[in-house]
Amino acid sequence: MSRRGAVGDGEVDGRAPVVLSLWLLTTLGYAYIIVPTSVFPLIQESMTISPLAASALISATLAAQVIANVPVGVLLDRLHNLRLLGWATVGLLVVAVWGWHAGTTGSYWSLLSSRAAGGVVTIVLWTAGVTITSGLYGVGSRATAVGFFTTSAPAGFALGQFTGPVLSESVGWAGTFVVYGVASVFVFGLLLLAASWCPSPTTPQTETPTTEQFRAALVDRQVWQVAVLGFISFSAFLVLTNWMPSYLIDEFGYSLVNSGAFVALFPATGIVSRWGGGILSDTWFGGRRRPIVIWSFVIATPAFLLLSVVVHPVLLILTLCVAGLAIQLSIGILFAYAREIVEPSVSATAVSVTSAVAVLGATVGPILTGALFTHTGSYMSIFVYTIVLSSIGIVFAWSAPEPRERVHAGTEAPSD
Description:
Elements: H1 15-38, H2 40-47, H3 51-78, H4 81-105, H5 108-136, H6 142-150, H7 152-171, H8 175-196, H9 211-218, H10 221-252, H11 256-263, H12 265-282, H13 290-309, H14 313-329, H15 331-339, H16 347-376, H17 380-398
């Protein structure tokens, strides 16, 4: 029994403030990740670098996330989650100050190194957030909670894109990093306060996994099947996020401002879709995860096809929103899905494998489509990539396992 009583005894559910604090912390992390894209012209001018070199400031962060993901999951399965999250928050402040110094002194390689280090600390924020959130809730509402938490990524992207140009006017483009870093320290303080009043442990109470259990989780076919679904979802999502502004400008004559505003709807729909996928899974489908993933790709595939041929402006924007809603519907539950098909002691490892492969999809998708576009000179090649990828997603989702919650004495999350 906690100092505030168990949930259901008339006491306030103390888990929600913890999840909200985690959401805010990760939102700041993702704002740090994406903010260079909102001020690329300023970065290129002040550092005298090419567009490719500027883009590398994003790619370096994502690549570091891919590499660090699994080791981070292993650490989370063995160490106190909040403590590791605290060190990651300090790390975000350090890399933010490092990036500010490198940016103001014109040291590109130092700036690039700071961004790579930022990839490591932000993946700790993400994976720890998923692990803590999913551990706080039982199977009956876990996907809803995790779905809400995953909206921190599109919310962070929106925050970075919106505040980057505004903040750069007063603190300079490099100073934006420090703003997010300092803010994250304050939010972590709120998280500690929320955790101290939470009726459930913020570090899952499971046995320390053995080396054999780690090995089994890393090569588990079902984990990798869910991870591939993450690769497909994230790759298609980032490809369209990356290419649609240029498509609207070149093919429809939209201005840079209007195309940016319209394309912002695509990731913004994820704030509704990612959380909605979790709610539907927990309620409408009675805790089953596979139907949500299937419907995600079943709806996304024809939406991508229609997006490639529609010419009416209003229909184009509506189709863009439907495509954004559909492809992100499964993202809200994939991480809950991954942890539920392995033993609780290696749940963070399963989540990290899924996250690593998903971020890999987000990293290589724009690169592959860039090569396709260079070779063909046609935007149709980009749409074909997303259509084919989403079609493959239907096949993988159809044959994916339905997780069965494993209940262990003393290890199960609080009842809902």
